[in-house]
Amino acid sequence: MNKHQDQRPTSDQRRVMSKLAALPLALALVALCLTASRLNAAPRPIEEFLAAQGTYCIDDGAGGCFLFVPPAPNYIGWFDPITLYALSVDYAGLANAWIESESGGAVSLGTTMSGSVNERSLPDGRAEGSVVLHTRDALTWAIQSPSVAEIDFAANPLLFGCRAHDVLDDGQEPALGECTLKVKFLNPAPGAPLPDLMELFIERFADFISISIVA
Q: What is the pTM for the complete model shown?
């Protein structure tokens, strides 16, 4: 008997060899898909996103814009309907910009922002935007509302910190925090103006994919 006859691969071994032979092709296809996905994504300046914040006007019915915590520009806050606690973090530096403007530059909290914006084209012609924003020395304060219906960022008693106008009007010591904001949303088309988050919440809530903040 030829001693080499028993070295022929069995049917199970041939199946394994067939799968191994196909592995390089499968890996190449995965790499191609990942490369195409990266090519489909384009960065945009974080400054473009920051410039859009505080620009959305909520009609007050008298020819002006409604402000949640006047006279500072609007930006979103966070509210827990269970504990009735609410938190405001100046993630876009709007409160600090107002303080600097009103004081003629004499007062500043030193708020700084950095981050990234990535935009991915979608098959239907729209774009998916992804924002990561890191903010340091942000004006931070918290309130507790008597009820869900009575939430009022401008009037509910403070638990800690102070509002922007308190810093200038009363010379109160602000509480400064650090936060990381992550947002994903849909935009009408690649290159379309980046939205004010307030606009997304009020007029385009269906375009929100996700939002989170760690502060």
A: 0.80
What does the alpha-carbon distance between residue 194 and residue 127 come to, in Å, rounded to a whole number?
A: 11
C-alpha span between 74 and 139 (Å, rounded)? 14
Query: Do the beta carbons of residue 109 and residue 72 sit within 8 Å?
Result: no
Q: How far is residue 191's CA from residue 126's CA, in Å, rounded to a whole number?
A: 10
Judged against a pLDDT cut of 70, whether residue 35 lies above it is answered with no
- Tokens representing residue 11 in the block: 């049917």
202's enclosing H/E stretch is helix 197-202
The CA-CA-CA angle for residues 151, 153, 158, to 5°, reads 100
Residue 196, Cβ neighbours under 10 Å: how many?
A: 24
Question: Please, which residues bridge with residue 132 across strands?
Answer: 116, 182
pLDDT tens, 96-119? 999 999 999 999 999 999 999 999
pLDDT band at 17 (very low <50, low <70, confident <90, very high): low
Domain ranges of the chain: 8-38, 45-214
Q: Using omega within 30 degrees of 0 as the cis cutoff, is the peptide bond preceding 71 cis?
A: yes
Cα dist from 196 to 148, 152, 154, 188, 201, whole Å? 25, 21, 20, 14, 9
